[in-house]
UniProtKB/TrEMBL annotation:
Keyword Membrane attributed: yes
Biased composition (Acidic residues): 18-49
Subcellular location, record wording: Mitochondrion outer membrane; Plastid, Chloroplast outer membrane
Record's protein name: Sorting and assembly machinery component 50B
Predominant localisation class: mitochondrion
Organism of origin: Dorcoceras hygrometricum
Length: 508
């Protein structure tokens, strides 16, 4: 029986699957008695008798199928998978497809379980992103082995393995534009491997060149693996008086269900071409080495990531830096969490979304109490990132410009032909914090016009608050409840949201 794709409706009834010939035994005898042609009507006319015989056979087949469908829906029909047959893979290795589906089918003991396994196997193969179509057919096993079935997996590989994208993106809060392009080569060696390269050039802020590869399976390692090499350059002169360059490699070690583990090794350089940076920024200029292991747990049961109306989500990220035996290796522990909850109201698709998030960064090692945290690893807040959609920690507080939140220091000005240094009150460096807390509430609703509702355009009312504080260099000793409460900043507003297939546009 042909299994549908992930986007097609799930079949409720099998067509070609015949798990047990005994399912028809009682039906055949009853049909032969109840649907026997009338002997009194026109024995000498051959044509009416032929038509009557054909109609009786069709009715018998219909009764047989209806009986089989009733049995499959009400009883547990035992079946055992005899063989899994793979077709259509000219380039892809049989071992890759078998590793995704064989274990699923071997565990099935009933026809119902076999149908569910076929649906899961279809989704798994589609997620490899190397096939144009996947069809799974369930057929009867060999006649000498009653109660068995053969599974036929037929795939159609992508005709053009090379794809590319090109786009121009804007970040209004940072007043910057970026041109981004990428190329992707699929299944080069037949192991489901995907090779990609990307280039991003941003006017006035960031540029990046990277290349990577991902493997769904690697030898005995059953988890997908990813590797990526990147060269990143970011310009934060407008906000924090420094430029960052980083050359690194990242390895995805585990990605299973809700869990992800990755390792990152990068050599980072901070420079100040303006020679105007504040004291905190100036003393961290130079080179440092990041060698860190990151673990992420993600649980998202919301009905939509773009406009949640019910459900909840939780994300926890733990990063440990300093796993490389080098004096320039940064040693720190960074912990973040993010909690979201959506409550439906039952009218105009109205829903209340609220959430809290937090994060803490602290050095470890010799003299860690007196050591400052690295500027690049601190928490920064601000910008126009929606807190409803993002699950990336305590970074979003609407109503504040990019990095325009939290501790800041005045920049210095060095006058020509003078050794004196003065400070420019109009220039500030935002230096981030080690303890970050945010919370928000957002009430969304459909607009009264039908044309807007059909387009998904809706309104919302929101309120946000957040706090960013310093903990390192013994600053935690001076932190009190009163100071923490006074450090919170809040914003409130309303607006209209226009969703698209690629992003969510918000005017608030």
């Amino acid at each position: 029986m042909g299994s549908q794709r992930e986007s097609d409706p799930e079949p409720h009834q099998p067509e070609n699957s015949i798990p047990d010939e005994e399912a028809f035994d009682g039906i055949e005898e009853e049909d032969e008695e109840g649907l026997e042609p009338d002997e009194e009507d026109g024995e000498d006319e051959e044509e009416p008798e032929s038509v009557s015989t054909e109609g009786g056979r069709i009715r018998r087949d219909q009764v047989k199928m209806e009986s089989l469908f009733r049995r499959l829906s009400t009883e547990r029909v035992p079946v055992r998978v005899h063989d899994v047959i793979i077709k259509g893979n000219d380039k892809t290795k049989d071992s890759l497809i078998e590793s995704e589906v064989v274990e699923l089918f071997k565990k099935a003991n009933t026809v119902q379980q076999l149908l569910r396994a076929a649906g899961i196997a279809n989704v798994r193969l589609q997620r490899l992103d190397i096939f144009e179509s996947v069809n799974i057919t369930l057929d009867a096993g060999p006649p000498e082995l009653p109660g068995t079935a053969n599974v036929i997996v037929e795939v159609s590989e992508v005709k053009n393995p090379l794809t590319g994208d090109l786009g121009i993106f804007t970040k209004p809060e940072a007043r910057s534009w970026s041109l981004e392009g990428s190329l992707k080569l699929k299944n080069l060696f037949g192991y489901g491997d995907i090779w990609d390269g990307s280039v991003a050039y941003g006017w006035g802020q960031a540029s990046e060149i990277s290349t990577g590869v991902s493997l769904p399976k690697f030898r005995a390692w059953s988890m997908p693996l990813t590797a990526r090499i990147s060269l990143l350059s970011q310009d934060w002169l407008k906000f924090s008086s420094y430029k960052e360059q980083a050359l690194g490699i990242s390895l995805g070690l585990l990605s299973s269900g809700n869990h992800d583990i990755s390792y990152n090794l990068s050599w980072r350089t901070l420079t100040d071409p303006s020679q105007m940076s504040s004291y905190t920024v100036r003393r961290q200029l130079g080179h440092n080495l990041l060698s860190g292991l990151k673990y992420r747990f993600r649980y998202d049961k919301r009905d939509s990531p773009m406009r949640p109306t019910q459900g909840h989500a939780f994300v926890s990220t733990t990063q440990i830096g300093g796993l490389f035996p080098d004096t320039r290796s940064l040693r720190f522990i960074r912990q973040e969490f993010d909690l979201r909850y959506a409550i439906p109201f039952g009218f105009y698709r109205a829903a209340l979304n609220f959430g809290v998030s937090g994060g803490v960064l602290f050095p470890w090692g010799s003299g860690y109490l007196n050591s400052p945290s690295c500027l690049l690893d601190r928490f920064f807040m601000g910008g126009n990132t929606s807190p409803v959609c993002s699950l990336s920690g305590p970074i979003s507080v609407l109503g504040f410009k990019a990095r325009g939140f939290g501790p800041a220091e005045r920049r210095r000005v060095v006058r020509e032909n003078s050794s004196d240094q003065t400070f420019d009150d109009s220039g500030m460096d935002y230096i981030g914090g080690d303890l970050a807390l945010t919370a928000f509430a957002d009430f969304s609703f459909d607009l009264p016009l039908r044309v807007l509702r059909d387009a998904g355009i809706h309104g919302h009312v929101f309120a946000c608050t957040g706090s960013l504080s310093k903990l390192t260099e013994n600053a935690f000793r001076q932190l009190s409840y009163q100071k923490l409460r006074d450090s919170f900043r809040s914003s409130a507003g309303f607006g209209i949201i226009v969703p698209t297939k690629l992003f969510r546009m918000e005017v608030s």
